[in-house]
TrEMBL record:
Protein's name in the database: Putative periplasmic serine endoprotease DegP-like
Residues in the signal sequence: none
PANTHER family in the cross-refs: SERINE PROTEASE FAMILY S1C HTRA-RELATED (PTHR22939), SERINE PROTEASE HTRA2, MITOCHONDRIAL (PTHR22939:SF129)
GN (gene name): mucD_2
EC main group: hydrolase
Protein family: Belongs to the peptidase S1C family.
Domain PDZ: 271-344
This protein's UniProt keywords: Hydrolase, Protease
Naturally occurring in which organism (per UniProt): Polystyrenella longa
Record-linked InterPro entries: PDZ (IPR001478), PDZ_sf (IPR036034), Peptidase_S1_PA (IPR009003), Peptidase_S1C (IPR001940)
EC number: 3.4.21.107
GO molecular function: serine-type endopeptidase activity
Length: 358
């Protein structure tokens, strides 16, 4: 019995000693590896961080965060981000990497690309920025860095977050936000890292050499599996569109109706769809629904008084005047998609323009 006890004690001490010796070798080696990787990536991180901007705007209710991320693409203050509700404000507030607090205006946008180009208010000529001519593509297995102001960790001169990840695949995006399909359709990089968090949209994905690969997308769920999708949109399409927007000659939107002449007699009005907005008494009156007419498309899909109209057919409508401009380009039988806010909910409602009674 005593011999058996001594044997088990000896085995236990041997295993313990082996474990101690193993950890004594592995832990310093792992720490050394980590330190070398950090030193190797420091120049890349220090190059990209000054180009990042923290964006603050509309939102702040329920799951609608009021902040996001962007990155400068010119020395004079142009920057890009995702097209979202955060930009639905007269002046977007921006904080640069050095803590400067500025405002910015929208230059152009394309909801189908989830892309917006903005310009900082003021005169600049030496801002650090990402050169859109120095971009690259990635393959499966490419190690990447994700830069973003996720969860609003930075509000002043603090650096945005940097996350390590790996490109898992390049595929078509099949996802939705909430219960509705997103308008963006195209190839994306799927990232093996939790990159798509609140406020991260508009951040950048780079390789370990500091070349930009993609722009981080919104928080989305896979429309088939109902799982979160961590994805980024390839930079080549964004770079081409942003460059054209900056030059003022972007023509990539599908059938932009705001450039087409309209016959006043043929204009579709909100009443034709079955709802009436509050009186337009001041400049930029928000598009709140005043009442809904019975037995109309608006009533059938569930529009209610006090609903705030945010988008019509992917066009942002921050005021009643903007609603009227978009509505004026609709025709009978056209499909209409209205995104509205009801309390803390964001709803998407779809129907067709009915035949008007003369």
């Amino acid at each position: 019995m005593k011999q058996q006890f001594r044997f088990h004690l000896l085995m236990t001490l041997t295993l313990a000693l082996t474990l101690i010796l193993t950890l004594g070798v592995i832990l310093p080696f792992t720490a050394s590896q980590s330190a070398r990787a950090e030193n190797r990536l420091s120049p890349v991180i220090n190059k990209i961080l000054p180009c990042m901007v923290k964006i603050f705007g509309a939102g702040g209710i329920s799951s609608l965060e009021s902040y996001g991320t962007g990155f400068l693409i010119s020395s004079d203050g142009h920057f890009v981000t995702v097209w979202s509700h955060v930009l639905d404000t007269d002046r977007v507030r921006v904080v640069l990497a050095d803590g400067q607090r500025l405002t910015a205006q929208i230059v152009d946008f394309d909801p189908h690309r989830d892309l917006a180009l903005l310009k900082l208010d003021g005169d600049f000529n030496d801002l650090p920025h990402i050169n859109l001519e120095e971009i690259t593509t990635a393959n499966v297995g490419t190690r990447v860095l994700a830069f973003s102001n996720m969860f609003k960790v930075a509000t002043g001169n603090e650096p945005v977050s940097v996350m390590h990840g790996v490109i898992a695949s390049r595929t078509e995006l099949e996802a939705r936000r909430g219960s509705y399909e997103v308008p963006f359709a195209g190839p994306v990089y799927i990232v093996d890292a939790p990159t798509n968090n609140s406020g991260a949209a508009g951040g950048v994905l780079t390789d370990y050499q500091g070349q930009v690969i993609a722009m981080i997308g919104k928080e989305l769920r896979n429309s088939e599996t109902n799982t979160w999708v961590h994805y980024a949109m390839p930079i080549e399409g964004i770079a081409k569109a942003a460059t054209a927007m900056k030059a003022g000659n972007y023509d990539g939107r599908e059938g932009d109706p705001l450039n087409e002449p309209v016959d006043p007699k043929s204009r579709i009005k909100t009443r034709d769809l079955g709802f009436i907005l509050v009186p337009d008494v001041v400049a930029r009156t928000p598009a709140y629904v005043d009442r809904v007419l019975s037995e109309t498309p608006a009533a059938e899909v569930g529009i209610q008084p006090d609903d705030l109209i945010l988008f019509i057919n992917d066009q942002i409508v921050p005021s009643i005047e903007d609603v009227m401009q978009v509505m004026a380009r609709l025709e009978e039988f056209d499909d209409v998609k209205i995104i509205l806010r009801r309390g803390d909910q964001i709803l998407t409602l779809e129907f067709s323009v009915p035949v008007r009674e003369d």
